[in-house]
Amino acid sequence: xxxxxxxxxxxxxxxxxxxxxxxxxxxxxxxxxxxxxxxxxxxxxxxxxxxxxxxxxxxxxxxxxxxxxxxxxxxxxxxxxxxxxxxxxxxxxxxxxxxxxxxxxxx
Amino acid sequence: xxxxxxxxxxxxxxxxxxxxxxxxxxxxxxxxxxxxxxxxxxxxxxxxxxxxxxxxxxxxxxxxxxxxxxxxxxxxxxxxxxxxxxxxxxxxxxxxxxxxxxxxxxxxxxxxxxxxxxxxxx
Lengths: 107, 122
Known about the structure:
Helix content of chain B: under 10%
Largest interface: A-B, 25 and 24 residues
Distance between the termini of chain A: 36 Å
Radius of gyration of chain B: 14 Å
Shape of chain B: globular
Oligomer: heterodimer
Distance between the termini of chain B: 39 Å
Strand content of chain B: over 45%
Structural class of chain B: mainly beta
Protein backbone atom coordinates (compact mmCIF):
# COMPACT_ATOMS: atom_id res chain seq x y z
CA UNK A 1 0.00 0.00 0.00
CA UNK A 2 1.10 3.56 -0.70
CA UNK A 3 2.10 5.38 2.47
CA UNK A 4 1.56 9.10 2.93
CA UNK A 5 3.49 11.21 5.40
CA UNK A 6 2.58 14.77 6.33
CA UNK A 7 4.62 17.51 7.91
CA UNK A 8 4.40 19.14 10.23
CA UNK A 9 2.06 17.08 12.41
CA UNK A 10 0.92 20.30 14.03
CA UNK A 11 1.61 23.99 13.80
CA UNK A 12 0.67 27.18 15.56
CA UNK A 13 0.06 30.23 13.42
CA UNK A 14 -1.52 33.65 13.56
CA UNK A 15 -4.32 35.12 11.50
CA UNK A 16 -2.82 36.46 8.28
CA UNK A 17 0.10 34.01 8.24
CA UNK A 18 1.04 32.01 5.18
CA UNK A 19 0.94 28.30 6.00
CA UNK A 20 2.26 25.36 4.00
CA UNK A 21 1.61 21.69 4.76
CA UNK A 22 3.46 18.99 2.86
CA UNK A 23 2.47 15.45 1.96
CA UNK A 24 4.92 12.86 0.66
CA UNK A 25 3.97 9.57 -0.98
CA UNK A 26 6.02 6.38 -0.72
CA UNK A 27 5.88 6.01 -4.50
CA UNK A 28 5.00 8.19 -7.47
CA UNK A 29 1.27 8.81 -7.82
CA UNK A 30 1.08 11.49 -10.49
CA UNK A 31 -1.41 14.10 -9.29
CA UNK A 32 -3.82 11.67 -7.63
CA UNK A 33 -3.96 13.55 -4.34
CA UNK A 34 -6.63 15.55 -2.60
CA UNK A 35 -6.74 17.66 0.54
CA UNK A 36 -9.46 17.70 3.19
CA UNK A 37 -10.19 20.05 6.06
CA UNK A 38 -11.82 18.64 9.18
CA UNK A 39 -13.17 20.69 12.04
CA UNK A 40 -13.91 19.18 15.41
CA UNK A 41 -16.99 16.97 15.40
CA UNK A 42 -17.60 17.42 11.69
CA UNK A 43 -17.14 15.30 8.58
CA UNK A 44 -14.16 16.20 6.39
CA UNK A 45 -14.61 18.79 3.66
CA UNK A 46 -12.86 18.52 0.30
CA UNK A 47 -10.63 21.49 -0.52
CA UNK A 48 -8.34 20.39 -3.36
CA UNK A 49 -8.52 17.55 -5.88
CA UNK A 50 -6.03 16.29 -8.46
CA UNK A 51 -3.26 17.94 -6.44
CA UNK A 52 -3.97 21.52 -7.50
CA UNK A 53 -7.63 21.99 -8.41
CA UNK A 54 -9.74 24.05 -6.05
CA UNK A 55 -13.14 22.56 -5.17
CA UNK A 56 -15.98 24.90 -6.05
CA UNK A 57 -16.87 27.22 -3.19
CA UNK A 58 -13.51 26.89 -1.43
CA UNK A 59 -11.80 30.25 -0.83
CA UNK A 60 -8.98 31.12 -3.20
CA UNK A 61 -6.52 31.52 -0.31
CA UNK A 62 -6.25 27.72 -0.44
CA UNK A 63 -4.00 26.24 -3.12
CA UNK A 64 -2.42 22.91 -3.87
CA UNK A 65 0.72 21.93 -5.74
CA UNK A 66 2.96 19.02 -6.55
CA UNK A 67 3.16 15.80 -8.51
CA UNK A 68 4.90 12.47 -8.28
CA UNK A 69 5.74 12.01 -4.61
CA UNK A 70 5.70 15.52 -3.14
CA UNK A 71 2.62 17.65 -2.59
CA UNK A 72 1.74 20.78 -0.68
CA UNK A 73 -1.31 22.62 0.59
CA UNK A 74 -0.83 26.36 1.10
CA UNK A 75 -3.09 28.81 2.86
CA UNK A 76 -1.97 32.25 1.71
CA UNK A 77 -3.47 34.25 4.57
CA UNK A 78 -4.80 32.23 7.47
CA UNK A 79 -8.30 33.15 8.63
CA UNK A 80 -9.96 32.33 11.97
CA UNK A 81 -12.19 29.72 10.32
CA UNK A 82 -9.15 27.86 8.94
CA UNK A 83 -8.07 26.48 12.29
CA UNK A 84 -8.67 22.79 11.78
CA UNK A 85 -6.94 19.53 10.90
CA UNK A 86 -5.88 18.92 7.30
CA UNK A 87 -5.45 15.54 5.61
CA UNK A 88 -4.06 14.49 2.26
CA UNK A 89 -5.53 11.43 0.53
CA UNK A 90 -4.21 9.44 -2.42
CA UNK A 91 -6.64 7.77 -4.82
CA UNK A 92 -4.05 6.54 -7.29
CA UNK A 93 -4.30 2.91 -6.25
CA UNK A 94 -6.40 0.77 -3.99
CA UNK A 95 -6.11 0.70 -1.05
CA UNK A 96 -6.58 4.44 -0.80
CA UNK A 97 -4.62 6.01 2.04
CA UNK A 98 -4.78 9.18 4.11
CA UNK A 99 -1.89 11.08 5.56
CA UNK A 100 -1.77 11.25 9.36
CA UNK A 101 -3.06 14.83 9.44
CA UNK A 102 -1.77 18.28 10.33
CA UNK A 103 -3.46 20.23 13.09
CA UNK A 104 -3.41 23.99 12.64
CA UNK A 105 -4.13 25.97 15.77
CA UNK A 106 -3.96 29.53 16.97
CA UNK A 107 -0.64 30.94 18.12
CA UNK B 1 -27.85 18.41 -1.79
CA UNK B 2 -27.52 14.67 -1.37
CA UNK B 3 -27.64 13.44 2.18
CA UNK B 4 -25.98 10.22 3.23
CA UNK B 5 -27.24 8.65 6.43
CA UNK B 6 -25.33 5.89 8.16
CA UNK B 7 -26.91 3.48 10.62
CA UNK B 8 -26.22 0.21 12.37
CA UNK B 9 -23.51 1.32 14.75
CA UNK B 10 -23.49 0.50 18.43
CA UNK B 11 -21.73 -1.26 21.27
CA UNK B 12 -20.58 -4.80 20.49
CA UNK B 13 -18.31 -7.30 22.19
CA UNK B 14 -15.00 -8.36 20.66
CA UNK B 15 -15.39 -11.22 18.22
CA UNK B 16 -18.98 -10.35 17.37
CA UNK B 17 -20.41 -8.97 14.14
CA UNK B 18 -22.16 -5.80 13.07
CA UNK B 19 -23.63 -4.56 9.80
CA UNK B 20 -23.49 -0.89 8.88
CA UNK B 21 -25.80 0.66 6.32
CA UNK B 22 -25.71 3.92 4.42
CA UNK B 23 -28.71 5.29 2.57
CA UNK B 24 -28.84 8.22 0.18
CA UNK B 25 -31.65 10.77 0.26
CA UNK B 26 -32.10 10.45 -3.47
CA UNK B 27 -31.09 8.14 -6.27
CA UNK B 28 -27.49 9.26 -6.66
CA UNK B 29 -25.40 6.16 -6.04
CA UNK B 30 -25.54 5.04 -9.67
CA UNK B 31 -22.22 5.25 -11.55
CA UNK B 32 -20.21 6.30 -8.51
CA UNK B 33 -17.76 4.41 -6.38
CA UNK B 34 -18.64 4.26 -2.69
CA UNK B 35 -16.38 4.01 0.34
CA UNK B 36 -16.22 3.59 4.08
CA UNK B 37 -13.78 5.74 6.05
CA UNK B 38 -13.35 5.55 9.82
CA UNK B 39 -11.91 7.70 12.55
CA UNK B 40 -10.93 6.31 15.92
CA UNK B 41 -11.44 8.64 18.90
CA UNK B 42 -8.87 11.43 18.76
CA UNK B 43 -7.15 9.88 15.74
CA UNK B 44 -6.87 10.54 12.03
CA UNK B 45 -8.90 9.34 9.08
CA UNK B 46 -8.49 5.78 7.83
CA UNK B 47 -9.85 4.56 4.52
CA UNK B 48 -11.51 1.21 5.23
CA UNK B 49 -13.03 -0.08 2.01
CA UNK B 50 -14.24 0.91 -1.44
CA UNK B 51 -16.52 -0.55 -4.11
CA UNK B 52 -16.69 0.53 -7.76
CA UNK B 53 -19.88 1.64 -9.48
CA UNK B 54 -20.65 -1.87 -10.76
CA UNK B 55 -19.19 -3.79 -7.79
CA UNK B 56 -16.49 -5.07 -10.12
CA UNK B 57 -13.64 -3.65 -8.07
CA UNK B 58 -13.56 -3.97 -4.30
CA UNK B 59 -10.72 -3.46 -1.88
CA UNK B 60 -10.01 -3.17 1.82
CA UNK B 61 -7.43 -1.74 4.13
CA UNK B 62 -5.05 -4.41 5.39
CA UNK B 63 -6.36 -3.81 8.91
CA UNK B 64 -9.82 -5.15 8.00
CA UNK B 65 -9.14 -7.49 5.09
CA UNK B 66 -10.74 -10.88 5.65
CA UNK B 67 -13.06 -9.55 8.35
CA UNK B 68 -15.11 -6.83 6.62
CA UNK B 69 -17.25 -7.11 3.48
CA UNK B 70 -18.54 -4.15 1.50
CA UNK B 71 -21.56 -4.35 -0.76
CA UNK B 72 -24.07 -2.08 -2.44
CA UNK B 73 -27.67 -2.18 -3.60
CA UNK B 74 -28.30 0.68 -5.97
CA UNK B 75 -31.99 -0.17 -6.26
CA UNK B 76 -32.23 0.68 -2.56
CA UNK B 77 -29.72 3.55 -2.73
CA UNK B 78 -27.79 1.70 -0.07
CA UNK B 79 -24.20 0.81 0.85
CA UNK B 80 -23.32 -1.80 3.45
CA UNK B 81 -20.37 -2.87 5.54
CA UNK B 82 -20.57 -6.29 7.13
CA UNK B 83 -18.05 -6.40 9.96
CA UNK B 84 -17.14 -9.68 11.61
CA UNK B 85 -14.65 -10.79 14.26
CA UNK B 86 -14.61 -7.23 15.57
CA UNK B 87 -11.62 -6.04 17.57
CA UNK B 88 -11.28 -3.24 20.10
CA UNK B 89 -9.17 -1.36 17.56
CA UNK B 90 -12.19 -1.23 15.23
CA UNK B 91 -13.78 1.27 17.60
CA UNK B 92 -14.37 4.38 15.50
CA UNK B 93 -16.82 6.69 13.82
CA UNK B 94 -17.59 5.16 10.43
CA UNK B 95 -18.31 7.49 7.53
CA UNK B 96 -20.03 6.56 4.29
CA UNK B 97 -18.52 8.46 1.35
CA UNK B 98 -19.79 8.78 -2.19
CA UNK B 99 -17.31 9.36 -5.01
CA UNK B 100 -14.34 10.18 -2.78
CA UNK B 101 -12.10 12.70 -4.56
CA UNK B 102 -14.06 12.27 -7.81
CA UNK B 103 -14.49 15.46 -9.82
CA UNK B 104 -15.35 15.92 -13.48
CA UNK B 105 -15.43 19.11 -15.52
CA UNK B 106 -15.04 21.18 -12.38
CA UNK B 107 -17.89 19.46 -10.54
CA UNK B 108 -17.00 17.38 -7.49
CA UNK B 109 -19.29 14.57 -6.39
CA UNK B 110 -17.40 13.85 -3.14
CA UNK B 111 -20.03 13.59 -0.39
CA UNK B 112 -19.80 12.38 3.23
CA UNK B 113 -22.35 11.25 5.77
CA UNK B 114 -22.19 12.29 9.43
CA UNK B 115 -21.01 8.87 10.56
CA UNK B 116 -22.17 6.07 12.81
CA UNK B 117 -20.29 5.15 15.98
CA UNK B 118 -19.02 1.63 16.48
CA UNK B 119 -17.66 0.71 19.90
CA UNK B 120 -16.07 -2.68 20.44
CA UNK B 121 -15.70 -3.47 24.11
CA UNK B 122 -16.34 -6.25 26.55
